[in-house]
UniProtKB/TrEMBL annotation:
Record bears the keyword Transferase: yes
SUPFAM superfamilies: NAD kinase/diacylglycerol kinase-like
Example GO BP: methylglyoxal biosynthetic process
Cellular-component GO terms for this entry: cytosol
GO molecular function: kinase activity; methylglyoxal synthase activity
Keyword annotations of the record: Kinase, Transferase
Organism from which the protein derives: Phyllobacterium sophorae
Domain DAGKc: 44-131
Signal peptide, first to last residue: none
Top-level taxonomy: Bacteria, Pseudomonadati, Pseudomonadota, Alphaproteobacteria, Hyphomicrobiales
Protein name: Diacylglycerol kinase
Pfam family, one: YegS_C
Length: 308
């Protein structure tokens, strides 16, 4: 197996590492397993260009991406469209897709597990033309991220504290908006505070991570019109893992979801895999079952939907 890695030197963990030494360690580990390995370290602003250049290489190879969830999401989009396998090296704050793929979060352990891993087909979803491997979200999550980005932080813990401060501000005035949904042909009219649509339904842990990445099914999560007390209750049930018992939250499995916002405010935002994007008035979300090839640990997620 030939692996070409692109490491985002501005990714959370990589910011404080000797990347020359780390790249050599990665090469040694993969060569020990009989693979060919090369890598490059680039700034965050250059990551997409570097990923596309690697994906366009001739011959069979694996595109490895090292960085946070934003880097991994961008790499998944590039790999999917180019038809090359993706290897995920978690170097961010949450590393949600890596967790779903059962990749160890300690970097050397992740390298070892991937070097001994196998290629597997998993799902990827799209919101209009934008692909995602974790979640499309509207409502209070984009508001929290927008506020957090105005705060200063220099570390992963600093980012988490900034997120808590932003959440405290949003909690005082939760968003409420009208939306028309069409979920697998069933129309729904709601006034809500948030909608999250996951690339595979979430599991039962505290973090929003699916138990399987190849079920071929979206998870649709709708939080009704929330008061400040209701948002605080939702946060508590999320932290305790009991949110499925919260009457303000609906969970619906789906293959396709259409969203229409009759009174969309100027400058409205959504998040795709944690990154802020413009929210259009109409959004169509589709899951593409088994269309993304990924390198996973040999003991990683099983093929639950029968895709190759």
């Amino acid at each position: 197996m030939k692996v070409h890695a692109v490491f985002n030197r501005d990714g959370g963990t990589f910011r404080t590492m000797d990347m020359t030494l780390f790249s050599e360690t990665a090469r040694t580990i993969f060569e020990k397993h009989g693979h060919t390995f090369e890598s490059e370290v680039v700034a965050g602003k250059d990551i997409i260009k570097a990923l596309k250049n690697v994906a366009a290489e001739a011959g069979e190879h694996v595109l490895m991406a090292g960085g946070g969830d934003g880097t991994i999401s961008a790499a998944a989009d590039v790999a999917w469209k180019a038809g090359v396998p993706l290897a995920v090296l978690p170097a961010g704050t949450m590393n949600l897709f890596a967790r779903a793929l059962k990749i160890p979060l300690e970097l050397n352990a992740a390298l070892e597990s991937l070097a001994g891993g196998t290629i597997q087909a998993v799902d990827i979803s799209t919101a209009n033309e934008e692909s995602f491997v974790h979640q499309f979200s509207i409502g209070f999550q984009p508001q929290i991220i927008k506020l957090r980005n105005t705060l200063e932080f220099r570390s992963r813990w600093g980012k988490r504290l900034a997120s808590l401060r932003a959440f405290a501000k949003v909690m005082g005035n939760p968003p409420q908006f009208d939306v028309s949904l069409n979920i697998d042909g069933v129309p729904i009219e709601r006034t809500v505070s948030a909608i999250s649509i996951a690339n595979n339904p979430y599991g039962h842990g505290m973090l929003p991570v699916p138990e399987g990445v190849n079920r071929g099914e979206l998870g649709v999560y709708i939080a009704g019109r929330l008061t400040p007390a209701g948002l605080m209750k939702l946060a508590f049930t999320v932290l305790t893992g009991s949110w499925r018992n919260n009457p303000d939250v609906d969970e619906i499995p789906a293959k396709q979801v259409e969203l229409h916002f009759p009174r969309l405010r100027r400058g409205a935002k959504a998040t795709i895999d944690g990154e802020l994007v413009r929210l259009p008035k109409d959004v169509v979300i589709i899951i593409h079952a088994g269309e993304l090839q990924v390198l996973v640990p040999s003991e990683g997620p099983s093929n639950q939907n029968g895709a190759g």
